[in-house]
Every structure is written in C-alpha cells, then in structure tokens.
From TrEMBL, chain B:
Protein name as it appears in the record: Sulfur carrier protein ThiS
InterPro entries per record: Beta-grasp_dom_sf, Mopterin_synth/thiamin_S_b, Thi_S, ThiS/MoaD-like
Species this protein is from: Shewanella fidelis
Pfam family, one: ThiS
Tree of life domain: Bacteria
C-alpha cells in the first residue's frame, strides 16, 4: 500500500535524466521525503546526484551541512579556516569540548561522514579568499548550489562574486542579535534580481556581527533551517524563491519578504545589464562594439 | 507635503522629495549612518544608485534595514 503510493507519486514527478533508481535501503531511509509529491523517487535521486558547497562552518554551516547530509544530498564541500572555540559550542551543535582547537570544516566533515555514510563530504580547511577559491571553482557548473554561511561582510562579497561569475545559485543566510536575513539569487534564472552587491554594496557600513553584539543559538538555527529548505527547493527545481530577501525579527517573530532589484550600475553583475542594453539598442552605430 | 510610511511610522515629507533627501533626514533624526541603510519601497528594494532619482509618492511604504553579516 505504502509502496504503491510512493511509486505513484514518484512517477508523477519529472524524472531527471541520468539519475539512478534508489536502493531499497535508501528508499526506506528517505521514505518521508520520497512520500512528498514534490520530491518522489526522482527528487531524491536529484539530491543524491547534487553537489553543494558550504562557505563557513559556524552556526549556520553546522546545521545546514547536517540537514543537507541527512536529507541525502550526495556531495557536500565544507569550507572554513577557523578552529573550534569554546564560545562556539552553544550554537554550533556538531562540535563538543573535545573538538576545541580542531579546524571546523575538518571536525564537521568527520562527524557527518560517520553519521551519514550515503553522502560524500569533503573538508577544505582554509578561509575562502581570492587565492584559495581557485582550485575549488575550476570546473564549470561544478556545484548546484552555493551556500553562504560565512560570518563577515567581506567573505559574503567574495561568495557573491563567485556565484555571479560562475552562474551558481546562491543561497545566503545571516544572523546576528535578533535579526536574520535570507536571500536567493540566480543570475541565469532571474537576472532582474541582480546580486548580493546590488542589495548590499561593498562600501556599505556593517554594524552587526555575532562577535560584537551576540546571538542566541536558535536564532541562527532558524535561519539555517530556512536556508537548508531553500537549497533543497532549488535542487528540486522550485525557483519561485529566487530574487527574494526574507528578513526575520527574532523578538517580534515576524518575517518580511522583499523583492531584490538589480542595480544597473552594479560593479559585480552590471556587465549582463550592459549586455542587455547592447542587445536592445540594436541598430545603433555601436551595436557591434560589444560582443561578449 | 505628502504622507509616507517609514518602518510603519507615518511621516510627512515634501511633495517630490527624493529618496536620498528623505533618507538623509531620517538618518540624522535617528542617529543612523546613511551608509548603513538599505531600503525597500513598497516591498521592492531600491538600489542605492537609484535613490537620488527616485521621488517618494504619497502613501509609499519605506522599509529601512541594515545588512546582517553574522553566521
Ligand atoms: Zn549586482
């Protein structure tokens, strides 16, 4: 009875070519996910074939990595140059006292690999920089989703530049004090939404970091859960969240939703808008000057 | 003068006032750095580069927020 139900919902789902059928043990393990018409057997196979990269394995990255690994996302790359500190433990739930001093990406990867043998988790024990990113992003369309779980504005700008230049869907979450933000950008799918830099230019003044103003664990957890859910939706092909910014107030328990708009003069994603201008101004004398 | 709303609070501004002018005034009155503000008008984010050319209309709902970068 249950099997029949599962099969019928799965067959109603758009099959992803090249994905292999689930094994019996995976079918059982992921049965509550497969039961969803929006997931089905093919959606679960899409999770298994996906490769996501998580930048930052702090409060957000801990939970995001665990949720995605538990859901059966097949390939997860964790990037963080920081070591576990005692002040991380109230919200970075994968870590314990015995992990203090160990690199976060390495510690998280070891635990998740042990807990979720179905998935491949790799650790990059380095901060993301213009140099360290080179070997990570050398192949075209290497990752299905880029998850920004970092803890500072500079890294967030770099992650955005990578997402734009590599055409990777970006799911960016942040939390500090009682404020949380979550947004999704995908240049190819929704260029009108622009990028993170259109929303928050690099010269913007930033006041809120966990180090200086504090944060409660569940506040970070709320954003991490939403970020994980958004990533899974993207992997299933649900793109309706792209181009939205969600703001959470952890005191009032309110969510606000805004539409992100491209800044035509953006120094990061502006080239595409320039390209569009050239296309729409066909017939003018300079139409052949720009061939991208 | 026209009435607009800034973070749900009613506010009188000059007819045709630019977003830049409104936000400059707000940042002074509330002791917030202008460089720390992002803004949405009627639920659509207004990129900083458009502030000086955007005129506030009666009943516009402005939502001011700052970037949260922690994680
Ligand atoms: Zn941009």
């Amino acid at each position: 009875m249950v099997t029949e139900q599962l099969t019928s919902t799965a067959s109603g789902n758009k099959a992803n070519s090249g994905t292999k059928a689930l094994s019996d043990s995976d079918f059982l393990r992921y049965s509550r996910q497969v039961l969803l018409a929006e997931v089905g057997e093919s959606g679960q196979a899409q999770f298994a074939n996906a490769h996501v990269i998580v930048i930052g394995v702090g409060g957000l990255g801990n939970l995001v990595a665990q949720y995605l690994a538990a859901a059966g996302v097949g390939n997860i790359t964790l990037v963080d140059g920081d070591k576990v500190e005692v002040s991380n433990l109230p919200r970075q739930l994968l870590f314990h006292d015995s992990d203090i001093g160990v690199n976060k990406a390495v510690a998280a990867s070891a635990k998740l690999t042990k807990a979720y043998t179905q998935v491949r988790i790799s650790a990059v024990a380095e901060h993301l920089t213009a140099t360290s990113m080179q070997p990570l992003f050398k192949l075209d369309r290497q990752y299905d989703v880029l998850l920004d779980c970092s803890d500072n504005f500079e890294t967030r700008q770099l992650v955005n530049r990578i997402a734009v230049s590599q055409n990777i869907a970006l799911v960016s979450a942040s939390a500090a004090h009682f404020q949380g933000q979550l947004l999704c950008i995908e240049q190819q799918y929704k260029p009108d939404s622009g990028c993170y830099h259109c929303l928050f230019p690099a010269d913007m003044k930033v006041n809120q970091t966990c180090q200086t103003i504090g944060v409660l664990g569940p506040m970070v957890g709320t954003l991490a859960s939403m970020q994980s859910l958004m990533a899974l939706q993207l992997l299933l092909g649900n793109k309706q969240l792209v181009g939205n910014l969600y703001r959470f107030d952890g005191k009032q328990f309110s969510w606000r939703q805004l539409i992100i708009t491209r800044d035509e003069s953006c120094s990061v994603c502006g080239q595409a808008s320039h390209y569009n201008e050239c296309v729409t101004s066909a017939g003018t004398a300079n139409q052949n000057q720009h061939e991208y | 003068m026209i009435t607009i709303f800034i973070n749900d609070a009613m506010k009188q501004v000059e007819q045709g006032a630019s977003l830049t002018k409104v936000l400059e005034q707000y940042s002074l009155e509330n002791d917030i750095q202008l460089a720390a503000i992002a803004v949405a008008i009627n639920n659509c984010v207004a990129p900083r580069a458009t502030w000086h050319t955007t005129q506030c209309q009666a009943n516009d709902k402005l939502e001011l927020f700052s970037v949260v970068a922690g994680g």
